[in-house]
Amino acid sequence: MKRPFFSVVNAKAGEDAKIVIYGVIGSWWEGNEASEFVKKFNELEKSHERINVHINSPGGSVWDMLPIFNAIKSSKKDVHTYVDGIAFSAGGMILLAAKKGNVHMAKGSLMMLHSVSTGKYGNARAFRKEAETLDTYDDVLGQLIADRTGKTLADAKSSYLDYEDHYYTPQKAKEEGLIDHIEDYEAEEMPENVRNMKPEEVAAWYQARTDEPSPQFMDKVMAKIKAITGLDKDSKPENMFGNKFSKLTALAKVAAGSVTAEQVDAVNTEIAEAGIEGVSLVLDSELQEAEEKATKNDALVTQAKKDADRIKELEQEVEALKKTPAAETTSPVTKKDDVISTGEGENVEDFTTSWDREAQAFFAG
Predict the structure, then answer these.
(1) Which of 138, 191, 6, 140 is nearest to 81 (CA)?
(2) Strand pairing partners for 82?
(3) Euclidean distance between CA atoms 169 and 179, whole angstroms
(4) Does an H or E element contain 75, and which?
(5) Of 17, 72, 117, 237, which shows the fewest CB atoms inside 10 Å?
(6) 103 backbone dihedrals φ, ψ, rounded to 5°
């Protein structure tokens, strides 16, 4: 199931709005586009004076990053950006979109900047042209970094966009003028040894956790079980059925996007053994697949009904024609569409009617 790379987690009137970018940015990975982010961001601008954008992302598409960057940069509201875990590549650029004084990094978080990269298939000339395009992208990003740090374009490119990955701790980023504040809260979950992981490995790690901004899997499960069993809403899972729910309890800190089929099967077994009826867990991907199959089945049923109605209509027309007396004429009367050409300068009569040909075409098709 495709999920957005962002989520609005607080939009209450009178409070600061909060929008989080947790995961791979844009269509490069999951078919999500910046247009949805910009739409939500513009809605928040209408009702909030301050918008906090929290980032925990390995990067993504520069095509989607730029509209997000420009939406934040051009906003008339008080927009602050934060790194909750990592802000790599496109994520690091979005971090820099806030105005001076409004860029924050959590304690223990990490930032990374590097040149734009791509994949290409073609001949030498195609690769040379693609290299020129990448240089142009680096010029654009380099100027954005230069505007933030006060460096020249040449210095910004040589410092941050020299085809190497440049990692920054909060302290180093502040020294470089990339950020303004180091926050006391600890960084959110990020991969271990992230600096030594390949970009696609980091992307895959975050993609499996695209549900992090939403309610945890355990919360949804326990709410259902408590509703059915009548247990107090504050009951803890470990106190509900002793150790019978050890597998379910183990999911308490697992984000929905990280739950595996094996874990779901194990929990379903525990639920059945505990004598609870009416509760069965399924993965979001399985639910999506079932919904897609149901939609296809509905379409097939609709088409089958249309076909049956048409067949019935044709059968009724056939019966009506059978009851119509044949015309008593000495020679058949033909219409223009009942005459076919032999291609040899003469016409011969085709005694099938236009309705007959329609019926033949229908059953043949």
Answers:
(1) 6
(2) 54, 104
(3) 10
(4) none
(5) 117
(6) -110, 125
DSSP state of 25: B
**Listed ranges 12-16, 78-82, 225-229, 292-296; the one with the highest mean pLDDT:** 78-82
Residue 354, token pair as written in the block: 């236009």
Structure confidence at residue 62 (pLDDT): 92
Q: Fill in the amino acid letter for 272.
A: A
* Residue given tokens 């236009």 in the structure block: 354
- Of 82, 19, 23, the closest CA to residue 256 belongs to 23
CA 238 to the chain's CA centroid: 35
- Catalytic machinery residues: 89, 114
Q: How far apart are CA 56 and CA 304, in angstroms?
A: 49
Q: How confident is the model at residue 245, as a pLDDT?
A: 62
* Among 81, 65, 94, residue whose Cα is nearest residue 19: 81
Q: Where are the alpha helices (DSSP H) in 275-353?
A: 284-322
What is the greatest pairwise CA distance in the chain? 106
**The tokens of 332 are what?**
């058949």
What's the per-residue H, E or C state across 31-88? CCCHHHHHHHHHHHHHHCCEEEEEEEECCECHHHHHHHHHHHHHCCCEEEEEEEEEEE
Confidence (pLDDT) at 215 = 45
Q: Hey, which residues does 363 pair with through a beta bridge?
A: none
Q: Which residue has the higher pLDDT, 233 or 194?
A: 194
Reference 284, options 206, 203, 217, 189; nearest CA is 217
* Cβ neighbours of residue 135 closer than 8 Å, sequence gap 6 or more: none
Question: Which band of pLDDT confidence, cut at 50, 70 and 90, is reported for residue 29?
Answer: very low
Long-range CB contacts for residues 141-145, cutoff 8 Å, separation at least 24: 141/62, 141/93, 141/116, 144/69, 144/93, 144/96, 145/93, 145/96, 145/113, 145/178
**CA 256 – CA 253 distance, rounded (Å):** 9
- Global pTM reads 0.56
Give the span between the Cα atoms of 213 and 190, in whole angstroms: 14
